[in-house]
Amino acid sequence: MISRRAFIKSGGLALFGVGLGGVPSFVTRAVAQTKIISPYQKNKILICIFQRGAMDGLMAVTPFTDPYLKAARPTLFMDASNNGSLLDLDGKFGLHPGLQSFQKLFQEKQLAIVHGMGSPNNTRSHFDAQDYMESGTPFRKGTNSGWLNRVVGLLGHEASPFRAVSLTSSLPRSFYGDNPTIAINNLNDFAIQVKGSNGNMAAQSFEELYDQTSSELLKETGKESFDAIKMLQKTDIKNYKPSQEAKYSTSSLGGSLKQIAQLIKMDVGLEVAFAESGGWDTHFNQGTDKGVFFRNAQDLSNSIAAFWNDLGALQDNVTLMTMTEFGRTVKQNGTGGTDHGRGSCMFILGNNVQGGKVHGNMKPLAPENLEDGRDLAVTTDFRSIFSEVADKHLQLQNDKILFPEWTGNKIGVMQ
Amino acid sequence: MRRAGQAKRKATGLSALAYLLQPASKNAREGRAQTNASIPARTALVPAQSTSILKTIFITSVLFLTTSFVLNPKIKFPYEQAGLTNRQAAAHLLSRFTFGAKPGEVDLVLKTGIENWVNQQLKGNLDDENLKEKLSSYDALSLSNEQILAQFPRGVEVRRMAIRDGAISKDSITDINKKELKQQYEAYRKQKGLRDEKELFRQLINQKIIRATYSNNQLHEVLTDFWFNHFNVSITKNQCAQFIPVYERDAIRPYVIAKFQDMLLATAKSPAMLMYLDNFLSMDTHKEFEIQGNRNGKRKIKPQHVKLANKKKAQGLNENYAREVMELHTLGVDGGYTQTDVTEAARVLTGWTIYPMKEDGVFATIRKILDKVGEKNLAKKGFVHDGDFLFAINRHDSKEKNVLGKKFKAGGGYQEGVDLLSAFAHHASTSKFISKKLAIRFVSDTPPQSLLDKMAKTFLDTDGNISEVLLTMISSIEFWNAESLRAKTKSPFEYAISSVRALDADIEFPFQVNQWITKMGQKLYFYSAPTGFPDRGQYWINTGALLTRMNFGLALAAKKIPGVSFDLASLNDHHESESAQAALITYSHLMMPERNVETTISRLTPLINKPGIDKNINDVANQRNNSNEMEPDEMVMEEKKTNHSEPKIKNSFGDNTMLAQVVGIIIGSPEFQRR
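Output (structure tokens, whole complex):
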């Protein structure tokens, strides 16, 4: 703590001070251009994207050779052979055309897929299933912390104010808990928002006041807040230019991932980030190679691919993981959609991922293999994957804390 | 760790348990009542180490006088012993029993007399005409659950009906043109006389803000907030969302100073809680369907699945409520129960469900069946219908159970659930758990054990009388000690409301304030876990939230929050401050009564006196439009649209005077974050 503070005081504060004092702006600019060595070591970073609404895993990554699926989905089934629009991954599974951007990542073995993943609790309520997945305790409602908050607690080294950031308007269940995390929709909000000389006065006043308060909590957090502002001031957030011509979509997910990339590049000490993707509850007309599922899938894969591209060499530090609360019925329903089911699939992206493979233990979708006679069975507990990623990417082995009450095996989704 | 073993439970609280869980406890209570029937009203504030006779008097009188006790006028709270002046005591009390002092309120409390004021606040029956007036346009607040379902059906329900009626084609549902679809829904709602569920939640949130701001019965508002959070339910679980307004109104609000067991029972029977923690579908694993058909765990019930005597699949026991009622509502996580107790308690509560509502598409069919059977016949069979609550004996596990060592004989029906909750409510662990939670809310994040012991004792001695527990709390010196002053960090809600109250502001559009509260980290009614928001400064204060608090202070004072208006000059009786420093001193004292603001003033003085800074203290002419307001909500948008010539939003142009700046800094200052 102390060493980091000391550093910021000597580097960042000087910058902040002159910025406010009416010193000619060229001086400010000169200071800004001075390379400030990051106060944080390069840490590993975990990005989680929650696909709210329950993604139809059988449509995202289709076992296209399975005759049962074809029979169960007369209008939704797509094929990879016979001029079908699926993208063949391995002769057995086909990628939905909306996820085309994933194909290259899969081929280059950066992207792994786990199929038949889900929760041991068979609830088909969105709320309950999300709650259980985010708390990491599938049979316990009262768990007061989220699993990512516990991840933060286990990291065990110096913390930045930007250590755990959720790009959402309020704190997600995964972030609930004792360890400091923040939810922020827009990095531009991270400032004292009054312009002109009076605004500077306000900012300086607050810094003075928080520096002298007798409440340790307010004093410490106040310091961190002003440190954080200074860190962000180094970069022009509004005019951010992604590298490698990464093209982010204008969707909410695209915006979130773009800001996460900015935080990563700014070296502000980010280690856990969270974003959301919505619209997966496709009870009606989910469509095939166009329609609502296609658009959602396209947004998901394009946003993630742009982010990955943007990271360039920083990819080595990052693992990105998607998750969704459950899958959808094998059979399509009467309204061209699918209802709440059990197993779904997830995507894990990173350079130390066991990529280019569809993991899991999916059996043919014959009636006797289905859960409750209707759904893709959950054959891989989500905690098995989450804990493996935490273990191999963040070096966190304490599963008793991350996922109490869970004992299971890891499936080798990470190298 | 979490589930203490059977052995530990036996070792810790066996004697208390045996006493509390005796089936004969009711008789014992009656016996006490007889013995002491002639003893008049209890004198309040019995010392904690009361003798057993006093204790008996205490219990008896409380039994008779739960709502109408009278404080002995000679009683004084021990603030003088703690070294506080009358004014300091009043200010401290205001910071705990209200959502923040309004200008001049310290004087008001002193005029009323501190003890009288406490008495008034506990009773909570001060005239509130102004509040009623402010709430008069919120029509949804007086509706029943059934009416709410009829008027504000859930989005999915509207979709189902619209498709059924052919107003919206199935094919258009997922199509690209969302705007058009939205219009179609709107048209359909209009045609059917339905309203958007968002409007219901807006009314719910707005009423909370309005009540907290304007109610004269502040303690009841503070307690409603506290108990709602204790028995949390959440809009995020949309199956229970529609039931939340009635839940707060009928299961929480009437009981905030009553006996704990009454509130526990009311929440247990309320549709919002039954739905939120799934007990509505919990049933005897071995029973087959008779009334409610459902398949596959918690899968949504669809009308076509609802058949009388659907014998396909039993869904069985659901332990969620049983677990949380012990862990979060009563005993606490270390309260000394086991997983077996959870399962057994869940069995006791099987069949506790929601009386199907006519207007609920999913349950309407079952309602028709029940109506046909008739109330009398249902009652004869052992069903219990009480408002929105139904005890469905056909779903109930009628075999013998054993919870916390208390045996429930086979065939206990509805009453055994009531007895179970009563046993929880009277458990020693509950007295400790609830006392601690109250003390954390009203005293500090780490309240002293000596205080907790006194409160827990009162809880047990008074049959869980919340009002008495609060009185014990403020009769204890720990409440007034220096460590307790300014010890709490305001939640975003408390912070926002206290700011508005400190300015004596008028809120025309409460939802604008709500958006700031959300941004500061507290999305009202949306906390998804049953734990409720943590009541800890550390939870609320992080870098992002703290900056938003500072920005809130500046935005509020600069009148950049649409629909919030106030007159800074009139707060100071229209005396103009002669300098920025004078303004700083005057308004610091006005807004933070009885606080030591000397350091604040000395630190800020050089800054506000810096050259180049706007010195126009009261210059309102220096106003300009500002770009950093929050996104206006829909209602404000409409106002803007329709009122071009005469904008209703009076203050949206901002106030950039030095005075506004100074006030903004006071609100955003660390001192104002504390209470």
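DSSP finds 13 helices and twelve strands in chain A.
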